[in-house]
Amino acid sequence: MKLKPLFRLSQKTNYHFVKYFKLCLGLSIAAILGTIVLLSTSGLNFGIDFKGGTLIQIQTPVATDAGHLRTTLSHLGLGEIQLQAFGTDTEFLIRFPEQPGGPDAQKVAAEKVLAAVPAGSKELRREQVGSTVSKELITAAIWALVFTNLGIFIYVWFRFEWQFAIGAIVSLIHDVMFTLGVFAFFRLDFDLTIVAALLTILGYSINDTVVIYDRIRENLRRYKRLPLGDLLDLSVNETMSRTIMTVGTVFMALLALYFFGGEVIRGFTFAMLFGVLVGTYSSVYIAAPFLIIIGVKRDWSGEKAGSGQKNVAVPAGAKAKEALPFQDGDADEDEADEAAKPTSQAEASKAALAAVSARKGGAQRPPARAKGQPRGRSKKRG
Question: Which contacts (CB < 8 Å, 24+ apart) does range 142-148 have?
Fold first, then answer.
């Protein structure tokens, strides 16, 4: 019994991604500039990991109005107190800044908060971070992002070329800035779990980008006269089924975590959901077409010395004479392959044929007359 797949993605798509490169690049630049404005004005809503202070999670016996509870806590004189519903209307997160006086003062402030909440409330969790530790965590998070991008840049540079490395780094910065912009715009909590999500997004995005770049390099060897825009479209189309399957499976897993994983990891899964979509978008519409701007070398064929063949540039407006895999006819490709053969190989073939012909004709021809030897008289038959 032969099992058949429930559905099969088309392997011969022909979408023109490079056609929308300028539009996508303009929208991405506008979004990044908006992110910079948000970060410089309102900034990120840092969690307890980066601001320092105390976080308490409580559960009230009955449904409680968050506005009334926030007003009650604001009169305690502990500074700016943040109150946030945590999944249901009976669970809340309470944050207040670090109090002068050290750990003992923080403990006293926490007891005052617990005394002000409705009677019968349960303390589910308490976290306390000092200002010194929070500054160290911010520094460590920044360096983690910097070194990750630097390592990826070096890896792509050594595996491909510096043009590919620049395109990869541009797409990674694009992904990070997009995610930071969403968190700054919606005032979502930004803590260490979000930093972990950003690092995971970088790894996922560069994986998708490297797959597309590897196909681009392969097609640069195969189609030497194909315009770069058409070659990029071809490469992305050839990897599109793999991209859709990967994104689909990761996205379904993240959706399950987002809805059923609880409030503790909801920020992490939201960052991952958004980052996977943005990473896929940047790999297709930013990283690959960016090679058109900075240019890329076309001599990936590894031609041998003495071949005498040079790649001829095709004008931008000219039509490609080279046949694509999803088109009929491969005459031009075969012709290009024949032209790329080294002349030394052709000369060796001719010499071999000449030697074989000489051996065949040697038995029929008389031996050569030495120089100065008198020519013999031919005998006539009577």
Answer: 144/195, 144/199, 145/176, 145/195, 145/198, 145/199, 145/202, 148/199, 148/202
Query: In this structure, what CATH number is given to the domain that contains residue 111?
Result: 3.30.70.3400
156 with 276, same domain: the answer is yes
pLDDT digits (tens, 9 = 90+) for 147-192: 988 888 888 888 888 888 888 999 999 999 999 999 999 988 898 8
Residues 68 and 180 in one domain: no
How confident is the model at residue 296, as a pLDDT?
Answer: 76
Q: List 122's β-bridge partners, or say none.
A: 59
Pair 212, 167: CB distance under 8 Å: no
**Looking at 294, 310, 327, which one is the last position of a domain?**
294
Does residue 61 fall inside a structural domain? yes
What range defines the domain where residue 73 resides?
A: 53-129
Measured distance CA(169)–CA(193) in Å, rounded: 23
* Banded model confidence at residue 335, pLDDT cuts 50, 70, 90: very low
Based on the fold, state whether residues 138 and 125 are members of the same structural domain: no
> For position 350, what pLDDT does the model report?
60
Q: Give how far Cα 183 sits from Cα of 59, 198, 225, 321, Å.
A: 27, 12, 45, 48
Do residues 105 and 199 both lie within one domain? no
**Same domain for 97 and 212?**
no
